[in-house]
């Protein structure tokens, strides 16, 4: 049952746990059933503003056409991608949205003012494509824009929200990415809610992904509007872009949670612009940040190295953890603060920890318990999520590991002795 905003705030204040002498609000969605292990991960701003349409209890997973194909899309590509998600085993791991980005429609609406799929590239229409994707046990996503035109100058949905939402629902669409181009200078807070209302009015449950690029700090208001919201400009397939975007998204960690997630844009893993180590760091940090995991490469021709990264079940499990707390940067030191510790609490009183080397040279990175909010006397087991093995059964006070340049290592810390607050 939906909780009012005021009620959620009061609930978050009343239901709390004291750890190491500090008081930490609990996520209202947890109903007091599980207490976070550490007090340093502020969650006081999430769980308060959620859309609560039953979707996005964990971050969305799937594939999007833009990062690899841009406008070079057609129904054959979409069908083959759906097939590839099945044949690679990615669909079984949770990658179930097959999302068409910009350039699917004709350059103008028809005589009745309706959007029309481009006849050359989508001759069978979107409904037939949705039926095909659904037959595979997957879901179909589509793209539009909260402006007069899309970013590639196709018709936008501004002032056409009701008609377009009805059309998408009639086609069997499951997901809408809603962009921010040609917005006529109208504030995002005014342009995005009408499509939420229109989608809800269709009676079909459609995931609503706001893509306003973080222009108007959507983390502060979009929780009542959509299921995820872009906190940054577009990513590109480079280390510089990926790291910059991770830092920008980190600012809003306290505002994400079940029902609505911060979105630092789609994955570039496998597109060729970064090294294997850089892509592994990209996937690790996106998973830790509870970012949407939307594959952006050509799944039909995926390499074994790329598949290994995207199909790491232990890392995916961090992203999909039911506790729903976004991991964040908790400590940085060394040259230009390039030795970084990112961490976040998980269900079962565990912590996910990423040691991230942003420098070019290999280095030993140490994490001390106090930056994780743990008492130094607590003993933890440490599981390496990329080696798939325990690397320590009894670490106390600190843990360190050698990390290659432009790379990361990812772990789960499980404390041996947990003293639950009464």
From TrEMBL:
Residues 1-20 form the signal peptide. Belongs to the glycosyl hydrolase 27 family. GO terms for molecular function: alpha-galactosidase activity. Keywords: Disulfide bond, Glycosidase, Hydrolase, Signal. It comes from Perilla frutescens var. hirtella (Perilla citriodora). It catalyses: Hydrolysis of terminal, non-reducing alpha-D-galactose residues in alpha-D-galactosides, including galactose oligosaccharides, galactomannans and galactolipids. It comes from the Eukaryota. The lineage of its organism: Eukaryota, Viridiplantae, Streptophyta, Embryophyta, Tracheophyta. One of its GO terms (biological process) is carbohydrate metabolic process. PANTHER family: ALPHA-GALACTOSIDASE MEL1, ALPHA-GALACTOSIDASE/ALPHA-N-ACETYLGALACTOSAMINIDASE. SUPFAM superfamilies: (Trans)glycosidases (SSF51445), Glycosyl hydrolase domain (SSF51011). It is an enzyme of class 3 (hydrolase). Transmembrane segments: none annotated. Its EC number is 3.2.1.22. Residues 336-412 form the Alpha galactosidase C-terminal domain. This is Alpha-galactosidase. InterPro entries: Aldolase_TIM (IPR013785), GH (IPR017853), Glyco_hydro_27 (IPR002241), Glyco_hydro_27/36_CS (IPR000111), Glyco_hydro_b (IPR013780), Melibiase_C (IPR041233).
